[in-house]
Design a protein that fits this description.
By secondary structure, the chain is of the alpha/beta class. It has 11 helices and 8 strands. It has a single domain, classed as Rossmann fold (3-Layer(aba) Sandwich), CATH 3.40.50. 36% of the residues lie in helices and 13% in strands. The strands form 2 sheets. A 6-stranded parallel sheet has the order 2-1-3-4-6-5, sandwiched between helices. Strands 7-8 form a two-stranded antiparallel ribbon. α1 crosses α7 and α3 runs parallel beside α5.
């Protein structure tokens, strides 16, 4: 697939993102695909700070800041108001963190998906409440350090993709900007169809993940190449399919040991995660080599 990201920038330089922030890079590329005729609905999250206050906000498209739990509900209302005015060409896109998606905003998210609201919901998933100091969310992986799980999280990450697939959503997918062809394909698909579309975008957070800011791209690639974060989408029948097949899976241990947030995990726990990842990838139809997995 040939990359054709627009050369137009919809984010001004000098925004408030941390160095190496995956969420800011994801927004930059998402808007290059969505274009200027996009209204963003945003609950409380890191991106509320990254964008900054009016009139010095960094985004060049309209943005509506809404309460933490209300993003999907507010987006539904904005979509209905635009449709009543005949403005079907304007896209409504929620941009929310995992706290406002997996947890606090889940009720509204579920309702919008069940109703089939014609909105695009993007969760930039940095796997904790990063804006308020790295507290655990239900997106936090097993074993990860947060300020509320100082000995390592003991709960498995919520499978939101399967939950929303069960809502018969028009489109559900995962993406990460470090695989730009896959990222572009999925956002273009979400832009082109109607109904409730959901994209879970893995977004590295260097401070929260305890990595150097320059390692963000490398670590996010390791998430995909290890199978920890498979790149998937729903097909016309609502079934999940892999959109990227690693030539072989790298050991989960390599991904985990690259991050300080997993420093308390034992080799036995990592082995358990490895077995779960292999089983999940097989369920998704992965047929590649596992020779490098220890």
């Amino acid at each position: 697939m040939r990359l054709n990201f627009s050369e137009i920038e919809y984010i001004s330089p000098g925004h408030m993102a941390c160095p190496g922030c995956g969420a800011s890079l994801s927004m930059r590329h998402a808007l290059k695909i969505m274009g200027k005729d996009t209204i963003i609905i945003m609950p409380a999250c890191c991106w509320s700070i990254i964008n900054g206050p009016y009139p010095t906000a960094s985004l060049k498209v309209p943005l509506l800041n809404v309460p933490f739990a209300a993003a999907a509900a507010c987006a539904s209302g904005v979509r209905q108001a635009l449709s009543a005015q005949g403005c079907e060409n304007i896209r409504v896109m929620v941009w929310a963190g995992d706290g406002g998606t997996f947890d606090i905003g889940f009720q509204g998210l579920s309702g919008a998906a069940e109703r089939g609201e014609d909105i695009i919901y993007v969760c930039y998933d940095n796997e904790a409440y990063m804006n308020t100091g790295t507290q655990r969310s239900s997106s936090t992986p097993f074993g990860a350090w947060t300020t509320t799980t100082p000995s390592g999280n003991r709960i498995i990450k919520k499978d939101l993709i399967e939950i929303l697939r069960s809502h018969r959503s028009a489109y559900v997918a995962t993406a990460v900007v470090t695989y730009p062809e896959d990222f572009q394909m999925k956002f273009e698909k979400a832009r082109s169809i109607k109904g409730f579309r959901f994209l879970n975008v893995l977004s590295v957070c260097p401070p929260g993940w305890r990595i150097d800011s320059q390692e963000g791209i490398h670590v996010s690639r390791m998430a995909v190449e290890s199978g920890i974060f498979p790149l998937v989408e729903t097909d016309e029948e609502g079934k999940l399919r892999l959109t990227y097949h690693p030539e072989h899976l790298i050991p989960v241990k390599d991904y985990i040991r690259a991050q300080g947030r997993f420093k308390s995990m034992t080799d036995s726990q990592i082995a358990d995660v490895q077995a779960q990842v292999i089983a999940r990838m097989r369920e998704l139809g992965y047929l590649g080599s596992l020779k490098s997995v220890s």
